[in-house]
Design brief:
It holds the Pfam family Pribosyltran. By secondary structure, the protein is an alpha+beta fold. The termini are close together.
Length: about 475
């Protein structure tokens, strides 16, 4: 289900964004995708609708690479648009897999942008191919296109509902149609995020609507946050306003806890919880649970920064930027030799030697996946003169693969699944290693312990407690 087993960090699949009823909808969508760039750096796409025709442009690369030319934006007219940033989990990095996907039906055009992963996409695809459906991509998003096409219902909305009732997985969707306008949805357990916003002017009844993966994408275009789309909720936005449907009833919620640990931008607010504050509190919990004598607390940029601030405040040990991140690297070039490949971490991070030399250092990072990056960072800090290096991780040990839209290696490649804590510390070269406890993580999120908090979150990558059926895995099918 994952794109590659060579990953050293987990990666989120993508970000979605849509606007309705605003001038220059495509330009606002491009700005929204800029804010969501952290959720996917492999490709970007926009589909707009001008009231008569659909227009689309997509390509490989960052948002600025794909939409940085004003001549491209001029080809995307209309007051309605949806966009997508991609990081591939299902399907490789090819233009045919770049979203939004668009299709012409008997009833007209339809575009769909999808964040997450379907756990029965291979099973559905197998059945659809037998029915004569022809797939043009290898992404699981195309399953929605075909399920809508073969539905026997009359209206587009009923076809959409018919389609989503057949899929299993963790996802948020934004669909664009001529008649129904924007359709937004989260999966029945709300594992992946989706928020609703409004543009200025809504108090006078003329402000447009916005759907986005995170609130930071609302901020960049000056939209006001309205609320999170609820688990299993479908919202329809068109000339009649906004209406909400709940075809799945209320199944509770299991929001991805890793959004708070790593994926979301720290200035976002998800499920009512500010991401920055959640990370800072995790750092405080780590300091209480795994105190060690040291001279400086150093974050591994960027996700480790708020937690390191919390750790330093709670422990009384000074916070220092002992590692500097190069924000202009982008995706690492194809390394021709092992020697160059081993230098890759220095392209993204460099040691701040005056801060580290002669110091006992606490390194705060978000996770350990395969362990190779952690080893390189510890080695880099030691080479800068640190006398001790103590690694503190703001998540519990990652022992299980994710099947819900996060690109992680198979379990046999996860260090925490094959090593004890002492073996992990030795493997990465740290003097000590500690992870935040389950109870500490959930205390940081405002719950008494995991027993209380786990009823609201998905933490399957830590526990193996998968709340959504893994149909393809159990049937030994590969999407």
């Amino acid at each position: 289900m994952t794109q590659s087993d060579s990953l050293n960090r987990p990666y989120e699949e993508c970000g979605v964004f849509g606007v309705w009823g605003v001038p220059d909808a495509s330009a606002l969508t491009a700005l929204g995708l800029h804010a969501l760039q952290h959720r996917g750096q492999e490709a970007a796409g926009i589909v707009s609708f001008d009231g008569e025709r659909f227009h689309q442009h997509k390509g490989l690369g960052l948002v600025g690479d794909v939409f940085g030319d004003s001549r491209v934006m001029a080809t995307l007219p209309g007051t309605v648009a949806i966009g997508h940033n991609r990081y591939a989990t299902t399907g490789g990095t090819h233009v045919r897999n770049v979203q939004p996907l668009y299709a012409d039906y008997e009833f007209g055009g339809l575009a769909v942008a999808h964040n997450g992963n379907l756990t029965n996409s291979a099973t559905l695809k197998q059945a659809l191919v037998k029915r004569g459906c022809i797939f043009h991509s290898s992404t699981d998003t195309e399953v929605f296109i075909h399920l809508i096409a073969i539905s026997l219902y009359t209206t587009v909305l009923d076809r959409f509902i018919d389609a989503v009732k057949q899929v299993k997985g963790a996802y948020s969707l934004i669909t664009l149609t001529p008649d129904d306008g924007l359709i937004g949805m989260r999966d029945p357990l709300g594992v992946r995020p989706l928020v609703l916003g409004r543009m200025p002017g809504y108090e006078q009844g003329n402000g447009g609507w916005v759907l986005a993966s995170e609130t930071c994408a609302l901020d960049i275009i000056g939209a006001d946050y309205v609320r999170d789309i609820e688990p299993g909720e479908i919202v329809v936005i068109n000339n009649d306003g906004l209406r909400s449907l709940r075809p799945f009833g209320d199944k509770g919620g299991r929001f991805c806890v890793f959004e708070y640990i790593y994926f979301a931008r720290p200035d976002s607010v998800l499920e009512g919880q500010p991401v920055y504050e959640a990370r800072r509190q995790i750092g405080c919990e780590l300091a209480r649970e795994s105190a060690v004598e040291a001279d400086v607390v150093v974050p591994v940029p960027d996700s480790g920064v708020p937690s390191a601030i919390g750790y330093a405040a709670e422990s009384g040990i000074p916070f220092e930027l002992g590692i500097i991140r190069n924000h202009y690297v982008g995706r690492t070039f194809i390394e021709p030799t092992d020697q160059i490949r081993n230098l890759g971490v220095k392209m993204k991070h460099s040691a701040n030697r005056p801060v580290l030399a002669g110091k006992r250092v606490i390194l705060v990072d978000d996770s350990i996946v395969r362990g190779t990056t952690s080893r390189k960072i510890v080695d880099m800090v030691r080479a800068a003169g640190a006398t001790e290096v103590h690694m503190r991780i703001t998540s519990p040990p990652t022992k299980h693969a994710c099947f819900y839209g996060i690109d992680t290696p198979e379990e046999s490649k996860l260090m925490a699944a094959t090593h004890t804590l002492e073996e992990m510390a030795q493997a990465i070269g740290a003097d000590s290693l500690a992870f935040v406890s389950f109870d500490g993580l959930y205390r940081a999120l405002g719950h008494a312990n995991r027993a209380e908090g786990a009823r609201r979150y998905c933490d399957a990558c830590f526990t193996g407690d998968y709340p959504i059926e893994l149909v393809d895995k159990e049937g030994n099918l590969v999407a």
